[in-house]
Amino acid sequence: MNASRFVRISACVLVALCAGAAAAQDLPDVIILATGGTIAGAQPKEGDPGYKSGSLSVDSLIAAAPGMDKIARITGEQIASIGSQDMNDAVWFKLARRANELLAAPWVDGIVITHGTDTLEETAYFLDLVIKSDKPVVLVGSMRPATSTSPDGPLNLYNGVAVAADPMAKGLGVLVVSNDDLFAAREIQKTNTTDVQTFVSPNRGQLGEAYYGKAWYFWKPTTVHTTASEFSLDGLETLPRVDIVYAHENADGMMVEAAVAAGAKGIVLAGVGDGNATAAMVDALAAAAAKGIVVVRSTRVGSGIVRRNIELNDDKLGFVAALELNPQKARVLLRLALTKTSDAKKIQGYFDRY
Ligand code: GLU
User: Fold this and answer.
1) Binning pLDDT at 50, 70 and 90, where does residue 49 land?
2) Per-residue pLDDT at 53
3) Which residue has the CA at smallest separation from atom 3 of ligand 1?
4) What is the pTM of this model?
5) Which of 67, 99, 117, 141 counts the highest number of beta carbons within 10 A?
6) Which CATH number goes with the domain that contains 349?
């Protein structure tokens, strides 16, 4: 090779390397916090029993979703390795505190949290209420294990990283990306045991779409979340006990009394219809409310609004109406509200705004 050709090639290599380095420097920083779930699940053989969620590490999840390094500089951290049916206060506190710590760092642009789908909606709403940042926080899960013939986790993770890296996702509260759809934490609900298309937002609709790394945003949440939320975990180690009781034909007050005996500070009714229950169950709930236990009426129906004083006289019974929140979401808000007050009227105020 003659000298001038060598100089020309070397210059090209240098320019390409510098351009690559500059491009890498321009990429947003996204942290993936892994908690387990089916997205990290391994199954010895498809269809066989013995499938275990939360088996794979965060690094394996990142390796299984090629191309993410083109949209963000990614760092992975393992927070937990559990199936989300085992989600608990200890992991919630660890996750929320670590997320808040990272989000406060100027170099962090967004966070993705991998999570099992069983309780994903509860964790998402909890974080929506205690995260103190407007930077994107996006939960992703999957319905098929990582070892399946056609896992849905890698594309969910890819799209989740793209949304977490997107400045347009700022200020929308905690989001969830699943099967190309984008959801607000408060609105998302799991509706199918095994279908890949399991998540919906029955009352307000999905917030947008995330399709091969490109996101569309249809609307902005109007309820209080993240930076505007009054709730904080500062000084707390756990949250007050709140139990959910399920209404049904011929129900008596036994489950309500059991919750009271177990030390519940609040009870959420997964009521029939518009947050209703048998007279015996309502009597037991009224007795609990009279003792200072906060009773919130939600519904087992799956959509709609449980309003105050329609068939039951909430003013007289001392109850709170959950409005759009399903029982599991109402439980999350009630637990946080109880860290501020046990006054049912003030707690109704939280349900009106959050
Ligand atoms: N039980 C598992 C979990 O929630 C399975 C559901 C899933 O992740 O899709 O972690």
Assistant:
1) low
2) 85
3) 116
4) 0.93
5) 141
6) 3.40.50.40
